[in-house]
Amino acid sequence: MAETIDTDILVIGAGSGGLSVAAGTAQLGRPTVLIEKDRMGGDCLNTGCVPSKALLAAARVAHAVRTAGRFGVAAGPPVVDPAAVQAHLRGVIAAIAPNDSVERFTGLGVRVLKAAARFTGPDTVETEAGQRLRARRIVVATGSRPALPPIPGIESVPVLTNETIFDRLPLGGHLLIVGGGPIGVEMAQAFCRLGTRVTVLERATLLPKDDPELVAVVRATLREEGVEIVEGAEILRLEPVPGGGVVAVLREAISGGERRIEGTDLLVAAGRLPTVQGLGLDAAGIAWTAKGISVDAHLRTTNRRVYAVGDVAGGPQFTHVAGYQAGLVVRNMLFRLAPARADYTALPRVTYTAPELAQVGLTEAEARERYGDGVRVSRWPLHENDRAQAERETAGLAKLVLDRRGRILGAGIVGAQAGELIQPWVLALSRRLSARAFTGIMAPYPTLGEVGKRAAGAFYSPALFSDRTRRLVRVLSWFG
Ligand SMILES: Cc1cc2nc3c(=O)[nH]c(=O)nc-3n(C[C@H](O)[C@H](O)[C@H](O)COP(=O)(O)OP(=O)(O)OC[C@H]3O[C@@H](n4cnc5c(N)ncnc54)[C@H](O)[C@@H]3O)c2cc1C
Ligand SMILES: NC(=O)c1ccc[n+]([C@@H]2O[C@H](COP(=O)([O-])OP(=O)(O)OC[C@H]3O[C@@H](n4cnc5c(N)ncnc54)[C@H](O)[C@@H]3O)[C@@H](O)[C@H]2O)c1
């Protein structure tokens, strides 16, 4: 007979979002069931953040070996062993996996079911294994999957996505990448540094959601290292090459003529689709669109018992967003306080190329659209930073977007370790601080972090060293 389970909290999907909800509700003593149809840890651990950052780390080492001569250290061209790189990726995943494992969650008091789940009613769910569940609150955290753009011929060529590329690293040939978003550029640099020829085909401009002034530094570095970047690329069709490989036929932006580019492998990194299929959302009265499940500011769906978090909820797609949303949902489900609203004002986003590109808050363009002429911009280049010179990491800048009085509206850093350097600016933005908060602090010398303080100081220095201040100092000296 089919098992019937009654629970307080039911979570569907054990990725970044679902795991955080289940850990929270179980540790607060609420009976919790978590259903996962595939690998615990979801995209981030198995096919996303973790393997991509591990591959970038291997690529950084290859680059360091290739460029060691400028430090006076002799080294030859790096020798890359694909099987060993693959083992490195698997090792990193295996080291983190216990945190997301069935054993750990069972230990926290969560009942974990390994099966696909679907709604059968407003508060009922069924698994493919035949279990029937009824829950007081349900959280959908089913994530997203790669979108395949409707390019003629795409079904006739072998396509790699983030779901397959880390299991069969296409090292050594010519990798064509469709899409120059975060996945496209991170993978472009990783494979190029590991000795693969790479061509990025982006229909708009590289990293189109980011500040173009900061993106320019990433673009220039990628090109310098040998990545071919085709922007404004209209891919007319894809054709298979007999014996393996792919040809992308493009329309040339300027001449309007056709260009054929042949590669050994094709990675599609052209955006994501929310995982809503087969979930029976209609049976539960849960509305969704092509972007994902529709949620209000409290992350509640159109069914009041059901919440959605993470990539499936149609908002920004980052692991830290899924974690943040999970925290809000736990609070909103369990504490009968005024429901917390999601606020993305201080949402950081980092692309882990070298140089890294990190932003928080508004870009200059977004700020000008909202505040018009009241927007001020202050910059500090990394080549003016002593530590950057010592490390030979001088590409990049810190860019602050401020209002007239110096209140921080956004901050962007492109440069070495920008993802680490952005963190004080996340705190500053979330605490509504002004740039003045940075000018008085003692920043340790020599650190890359000094660029933030200098960019803040640059905003005030025209007023500080003005004729008016000099006159004031002269008058005060009469009394000394
Ligand atoms: C290549 C790549 C690199 C990335 N790098 C970063 C990064 O550096 N930093 C960052 O912040 N973000 C990064 N991301 C984004 C990040 O991985 C996602 O935002 C995050 O994983 C979303 O978590 P989630 O819980 O919403 O979904 P997922 O992690 O996708 O988890 C959803 C889970 O639900 C399960 N599921 C689906 N349907 C069902 C069902 N019917 N029944 C049971 N289980 C089901 C799935 O099997 C899956 O395990 C990257 C993504 C990719 C693809
Ligand atoms: N470092 C990080 O935090 C990180 C890294 C990787 C992914 N992610 C997350 O995963 C999400 C998905 O990444 P992504 O790079 O696939 O998506 P994306 O939507 O951010 O970028 C996709 C790119 O593909 C281009 N594109 C779409 N169709 C095309 C076509 N037919 N021809 C050429 N170009 C085309 C788009 O113009 C866009 O620039 C990101 O938005 C991000 O939230 C985060």
Overall description:
The protein is α/β, with parallel strands linked by helices. The protein has three domains: 145 residues, FAD/NAD(P)-binding domain (3-Layer(bba) Sandwich), CATH 3.50.50; 117 residues, FAD/NAD(P)-binding domain (3-Layer(bba) Sandwich), CATH 3.50.50.60; 115 residues, FAD/NAD-linked reductase, C-terminal dimerisation domain (Enolase-like, domain 1), CATH 3.30.390.30. Helix 1 packs parallel to helix 8 and helix 3 crosses helix 4. The mean pLDDT is 96. Flavin-adenine dinucleotide (FAD) binds next to helix 1, strand 2, helix 2, helix 3 and helix 8. Flavin-adenine dinucleotide binds next to helix 1, strand 2, helix 2, helix 3 and helix 8.
Furnish the topology, listing elements before pairings.
Layout lengths: L3 E9 L3 H12 L4 E5 L5 H6 L1 H18 L15 H15 L5 H6 L2 E5 L2 E5 L2 E4 L4 E9 L3 E3 L27 E5 L3 H12 L3 E6 L9 H14 L2 E4 L2 E7 L5 E6 L6 E6 L1 E4 L3 E3 L13 E2 L2 E2 L12 E3 L10 H16 L13 E4 L4 E6 L2 H8 L4 E6 L4 H6 L5 E6 L5 E8 L2 H4 L1 H8 L5 H4 L10 H15 L2 H12 L2
Parallel strand pairs: 1-2, 1-6, 2-3, 6-18, 8-9, 8-14, 9-10
Antiparallel strand pairs: 4-5, 5-6, 7-15, 11-12, 12-13, 16-17, 19-20, 20-23, 21-22, 22-23
Helix pairs in contact: 1-8, 3-4, 3-6
Bound molecules: flavin-adenine dinucleotide and nicotinamide-adenine-dinucleotide.
